[in-house]
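Human: We require from you a standard protein entry with sequence in single-letter code and fold as tokens, and nothing else.

Assistant:
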Amino acid sequence: MTPITYLAVIRLYIKRLNGGIMKKLSKLLLVLSFVFSVTSSAFAVTVASWGGAYTESQKLGYGDPTAKKLGISINWVDYSGGLSEIKAQKEAGKITWDIIDVFAMDTITGCDEGLFVEFDFDKDFPPAPDGTKASKDFFAPMPSKCAVGNILYSWNYAYNTKNVSGEPKTIKDFFDTKKFPGKRAIYKSALTNLEIALAADGIKPGKGGKKIYKALETEKGVNRAMNKIKALCTDPNGGCVFWSAGAQPPELLVSGEVVMATGWNGRFFNAEIGEGAPIKQVWDGQGLDYEYFVLVKGSPNEADAKKALAMMTSTEGLAGSAKYIAYAPWRKSSLKVMAKGEPWYKDGKTNMVPQMPTAPANTKNYFLVDPLFWADNGTELGEKWEAMKAGL
């Protein structure tokens, strides 16, 4: 018997009763109606992301507007990365996530294992406002058919304007301890350090950093990068402080412990704009890294989630997130929307296009962090890196 039939029977029964019993059954009917309406309605689309200011920018920038336009609920949950949780959900037959924010390698692995939905980019995602197809509007190609780009962030460097005489402008200046004496803060692992070392040593990245990674495929190229870092760290006019958490580079700059530091552009932005720290970023030789969305195959709300994902990653959707955080939208056309609406930042006074890693002025000399290269070579290079650090 369907819920509607049950309700009809109850109504007929109530009509035959009177007094207090009828009132009690009327209340019961209201409760049953509520239960049936909840059961028959769609559940919220659930998006798993990284939490903190990042997820807040996603929720406010495009999550809430999308939910309002589509008339659905979007629920945001935090997770710690990787595929173990979604695999466990699938094995248990209880998938609760619809969309996940993931790294490039997870899109490749998950796609190969059939965890995620494959996209037809130009059919599943809207074109740019000028009609440019989605695939042509993406800043860079996707690592798999299951990935759609979300944001790009930068591994760049910044300096304390009060502790540096002159104005560093290039990646070579980061290594120039004669012109700019003082300690440098660099990431604890080999990732991006080897790339910027070669960029500073004269190798032009080429499109997406192909020339740098070609050099790192050779022992000569790896040694060249390692020696460049070693020279900086052992220089009496320089020296290295190794950082592991994103909050550390701005702190080290503000405290004066270092004069320059590599780090993530969003952290530098927050220190400079949000806290008024005397910090200035340098974009030359930056490494662009990325985040992607995937759609879980067989999720409880796959159809609604697919619609939501298309709207969230549209030109206007991705531009919305940049109102709240200094990460670049994956859509090239989003920068045009932002430029027309400047000052774009939530404070109503900060222009955001100059703060975007993908802005034309900031991408004259950059590389795209290559996840496949690091997946294939990370362990071996990590061992060499730690051996180099141990000998400093």
User: Anything to note?
Assistant: Confidence is low (pLDDT under 50) at residues 1-20, 22-42. The first strand starts at residue 45 and ends at 49. The two ends are 77 Å apart (CA to CA).
